[in-house]
Amino acid sequence: MDKNIHFGENLQLGDNLRILRKERNLSEREVSNLLHVDITTISKYEHNTRTPDIYTMIKFADVYDVSLDRLVGREEKEYEESQSEA
Q1: Residue 5, in any domain of the structure
Q2: What is the largest CA-CA distance in the chain?
Q3: Considering its fold, how many domains does the chain have in total?
Q4: Please, which residues have CB within 8 angstroms of residue 42's CB and are 6 or more apart in sequence?
Q5: Residue 32 in contact with residue 41, Cβ under 8 Å?
Q6: Is the dihedral of CA 37, 39, 44, 45 positive or negative?
Q7: What is the pTM (predicted TM-score) of this model?
Q8: How far apart are CA 64 and CA 41, in angstroms?
Q9: Which domain holds residue 38?
Q10: In this protein, which residues make up the domain named HTH cro/C1-type (predicted)?
Q11: Residue 3: band (very low, low, confident or very high) from pLDDT cuts 50, 70, 90
């Protein structure tokens, strides 16, 4: 993983989707085939012009082998901190 890439609140979901796809050396076409979604839809997700529903997000997480928290840019430390404040 590129150590210069930082997930978190400064990135939008589409940015995270694009980073994860590129880290796995997958093309938009390959991801669209894996998710059974049109390639233009993948592009819209990655350019933050469309937001995937929760079921599609689960599929993305499965394909990229990450948690939903990681997919949306929320790290475990951030989650633990928010829980301790509650």
Answers
A1: no
A2: 42
A3: 1
A4: 28, 31, 32, 35
A5: yes
A6: positive
A7: 0.76
A8: 17
A9: 13-85
A10: 17-71
A11: very low
